[in-house]
Amino acid sequence: ATGGPNAMDPAMHYAPMALIDRVEIARGISPVRDGPGLGGGVNTVLKQVRFGEGQGLSPQVDVSGQYRSVDDSVALGGMAGLASESLRFGVIASWEKGDDTRFPGGRIATTGYERTVYGVHAGFRAGPGEFSLEYRRQETGRSGNPPFAMDIVYFHTDFARIGFEGDLADGVRLETHADYAGVSHRMNNYEERPAPVMAMTRQSDTYADTMSADVSLRFGSPQRHMRIGADFELIDKGYMLYNPLAPAFFIHPLDRAHSDRLGAFAEWRTGAGPVEAELGLRVDRHGAETGAPRFGPGVPAGPAGLALAFANADREWSGTTVDASMRLWAELGAFTPRLTLARKTRAPSLIERFSWLPTEASGGLADGNIYVGTPGLKPERAWIAELGFDWSGATAYARPVVYYRRINDFIQGVPFDVTPGVVNTPVEMVAQASGDATPLRFANTDAEIWGADIAFGAQIAGPLRIDGVASYVRGKRRDLADNLYRMAPANGRLALVWEAARWSMSIEGQAVAAQTKVSVTNDEAASKGYVLANIYGHWLVRDGVRLDVGIENLFDRQYQEHLAGYNRIAGSDVPLGARLPGAGRSAFVRLSWAMN
Questions:
Q1: How many angstroms separate the CA atoms of 529 and 513, rounded?
Q2: Which residues are 533's β-sheet partners?
Q3: Nearest to 300 by CA among 337, 353, 246, 256
Q4: What is the DSSP code string of 11-37?
Q5: Who contacts 556 (Cβ-Cβ below 8 Å, separation ≥6)?
Q6: Closest Cα to residue 523, out of 576, 569, 483?
Q7: What tens digit of pLDDT does each residue of 132-145 get?
Q8: How far apart, in Å, are the Cα atoms of 524 and each of 8, 27, 53, 472?
Q9: Residues 6+ apart with CB under 8 A from 276
Q10: 423, 432 in Cβ contact below 8 A?
């Protein structure tokens, strides 16, 4: 679980580039074995020492260093260790530091950052199985967040994982893991940005502890099997908002909140002739609760009244979700058609359900709106259909897909009541005192999302080829005539690549369409389209040594991403309340060395 109530530490925040081995993406929907959730799965695998081939211990190294001009940032890191055929041990570490990001027109104030990661990992082979364990620590230092009301003072995060994977008998494979993640987080509005008056000085301390475990048994071969398994997840989370200059002012907008999930699943991998199939079913039991909010004597009557009302309300929820999926594909030589039908679910987050105090805690939207939760939220339920194919010829390939999702009880911010702008409730009065008289409430709506995407490429002549990706998505409310809030505009990339034996160079164009299909209900602002050019290249200096260079936004175009947040920093080259611009021209150079 992210530590920040505004998701200042999303999952990829914990994967510095210098430590990434690979990113695995489940396109479309994720398998039921990965848990509930509406979208495709993303698993970022960090570098680790691999088992060697002999009985003696041999060294392994994979390190890199990078400089980027747009924010004068430096990144150093990698992995080193020793391994034999039965034992492996390694350490990882990375350090990154950057200044404010430049854009055509100046600097985006308070966008500097600092982050350090270090850890150890080990594995031991015993017969057909492998025991593994790892620990890592991430320390994110002072980092600016212009779309939020406060900046990061620190994120201190600990990860621990232990696991076993191996064959118990012929055709029977066991996989089991146990994980812990603990986040402690502080942010404030006076150290990185211009300090407000004393009465409005704010600091927030947040924690999130997550424990999880999973076990599965696979009966059969990788291509034909039945897999059964179970998993659970326990989350403890909370945060306190206070004025460090006035000890009597403190309040807990999310106080001693807990959520738990216990799930079981079954998957069947089978086939008939050229048709392959994977069928999955999972059931999860969810629970969520939170304590009565605590607050100090210096808290004004409005928030104090909301806290007392929430303390007397129902602060518990439990429910059951059911996910099912059917993936069909056929290996027909160069052509592989694919069909996916699924029912997928997502349970509301603790912020969406129990955030009783009107604040900008939105789980990462960074849209400047004030939100409150709804304790009685229902889980989202989506019916999903996807149709596509993979085609790969001698000199070209294409992987298009079209999809449709009909989502019941889709969770989105809606006006707090039927008279937005008329301040006639305690919630609206407290929100008005914080600068927004039209708060939003997380609520269940009905929605539909459809679209298409494609990856394609072709060999032109010799080492010259062309590669591209394109995506279009459309979202609408079904309970009223409006567009879904914050949907990405149509976009695409096209690259012309010259790839020789030891070096390559690519010229890339990136086009993003204007987004005018915006949510009227949420007063969403439209955005303009733009086109950017990038150049990338690499050179294998010698075996194990690689040099990567590139220039992004080659022509220093000014642009704004539709999903970017809005500036909250006074004195920046970006006006207050304006959508944050994209980064300007940025050159980078990265040198890496790997030895196995």
A1: 4
A2: 509
A3: 246
A4: GGGG--GGGEEEEEE-SSS--GGG-S-
A5: 104, 584, 585
A6: 483
A7: 999 999 999 999 99
A8: 22, 29, 58, 19
A9: 269, 270, 328, 329, 330, 331
A10: yes
Distant-in-sequence, close-in-space partners of 241: CB < 8 Å, separation ≥ 6: 202, 203, 204, 250, 251, 252, 253, 357, 359
| In contact, 210 and 181? CB cutoff 8 Å | yes
pLDDT in tens, 90-144: 999 999 999 999 999 999 999 999 999 999 999 999 888 999 999 999 999 999 9
Q: Alpha-carbon distance 497 to 504, whole Å?
A: 7
Strand pairing of 371-372 and 440-461? parallel
Name the pTM for this structure: 0.92
- Number of helices and strands in the chain (H, E): 3, 27
117/139 Cα distance (integer angstroms): 6
Cα–Cα distance measured from residue 552 to residue 536, given in angstroms and rounded to the nearest whole number: 8
Residue with token string 């394609």: 456
The burial class, CB within 10 Å (0-12 / 13-18 / 19+), for 451 is middle
Question: What is the per-residue pLDDT across 46-65, written as a single tens digit (0 to 9) for each?
Answer: 999 999 998 899 999 999 99
CA atoms within 13 A on the CB side of 321: 28
Q: At what angle do helices 301-311 and 426-433 cross, to 10 degrees?
A: 140
Residue 156, strand partner residues: 139, 184
Tokens of 446: 């009905």
Structure tokens at 570: 């006074």
Concatenating the DSSP letter of every residue in 316-371 gives EEEEEEEEEEEEEEE-BTTEEEEEEEEEEEEPPPHHHHH--S-BS--SS--SS--E
Pairing of strands 380-392, 316-330: unpaired
Question: How far apart are alpha carbons 566 and 547 in whole angstroms?
Answer: 36
Q: Which of these, 513, 589, 506, 595, lies nearest to 73 by C-alpha position? A: 589
* CA dihedral for 299, 303, 308, 312, sign (positive or negative): negative
Q: Letter for the amino acid at 98?
A: G
Q: What are phi and psi of 419, to 5 degrees?
A: -125, 65
Q: Determine contact, residues 575/103, Cβ cutoff 8 Å.
A: no
